[in-house]
Amino acid sequence: MSHHIKGQSRTQTTLFPEALDDFVTEDNPVRVIDVFVNEINLGALGFHRVQTKQTGRPCYHPATLLKLYIYGYLNRIQSSRRLEKETHRNVELMWLLERLSPDFKTIADFRKDNSEGIKNACRQFVELCRQMNMFSDAVFAIDGSKFKAVNNKSKNYTPKKVKFLIERVEKSIQQYLSQMDTQDNNEKATGNEVSASKLVWLKERLVELEALQKEVNDHPDKQISQTDPDSRLMQTHHMSRKVCYNVQTAVDTKHHLIVSHEVTNTPDRGQLTSVANQVQEVLKTNKITILADKGYYKSEDIKALQDTGAQALVPKGDTSGAEKKGIFNRSLFRYDKTKDVYICPADNELQYRCDTTETGTGRKLRMYFDSVACRDCKIRSQCTQSEREPRKIRRWIYEEILDKMQSRLEAAPDTAVTRKQTVEHPFGTIKMWMGSTHFLTKRFKNVSTEMSLHVLAYNLKRMMSIMGTQSLVSALKG
């Protein structure tokens, strides 16, 4: 006989069957899910069928299906069909759902029909974290990350792509017509016969593409995604382009909890104030500090954020292109606040001359230059390419706000590292849970619901790591 631990016989019966509760330890995460869902008011959060009529066929309580989804997203099981299978074989789910086994259609419909309730449940957990004083530092890092949509790249069209496809089809039609003319002139030709049906298909395809071209050009975004109309072709890492959603998150730098999130289909630039306002709403205070990368740098956004009472720390990227032109960068011109002048690299003072308005943005600018000093300057060729006009420096009337922010950034050199270590880890974790497919649903409403479930699962797991399962259960009950 082998010296190994022996299991029980599959045919062995027991006089006293174990209770299902004996299979779930006290520190099992399913106990946190169970307590959290039982303690919140599902009706007030917007879930349907909390209160039902006494007639008709009974339905599943929304608490049952919400527990199932939270468990699934916590354990990398997002598919409704896979969740249905798990309810039949997973002991933890048998305990959590009290041996109920909804079918996949019921599970999928719950996520589709309770979008608002699921989003509010995610916000409710963040509110509970706030009540536990988890956000005492009030410093948050924000960033956006591209999450692949259901829409394939081949089903996404831009003006450039449609033009290329039309030209290719027209070229193919001309080749077919040329071959047909050759065959008509050579009656003995037996090979390379042209298929008439192929030519008909190409002409029909050309009509479709011409109609699609008009549709794309008329679209506000100059882009159409046929499978998921809300998704957009975006630049991702390694210079590749994919059809994605851009998910914005704000993460607490102390405990790395996701405080707010939003699914968008636009770039990061211009979303600084929007994300910060969501954080302020969650925390019920305006006194917060926001860390962001240079992709969020927009002077109007930074001023709007400062006006709310928050502080922004956003580094400025150099987009002037002066170095490529072989002339001095604007950063080499120092502003003297006392004299209200700019000191150029040749140590000449550029005086304030007039006001102007920036084309496109409407920003009010102050103009600084010195025609005489610039005309006689020995390094003029390194400062401006114009033979007549002097080098002019434009200063936004609220530039002082940006200068103060830059001073705070220079006083805290670790800001960029802190932001990166804080906000990028949750993105990596959630994408790992999602796998290669990322989102499973289409349109903003359903994709936002999916993201809320991922964020709720992430925050639950993070809180269990911080407090411990049993301590978190006690806190949720309290």
TrEMBL record:
InterPro entries: IS1182_transpos, Tnp_DDE_dom, Transposase_InsH_N. Residues 19-112 form the Transposase InsH N-terminal domain. It comes from the Bacteria. Pfam families: DDE_Tnp_1_6, DUF772. Residues 343-464 form the Transposase DDE domain. This is IS1182 family transposase. It comes from Paraglaciecola algarum.
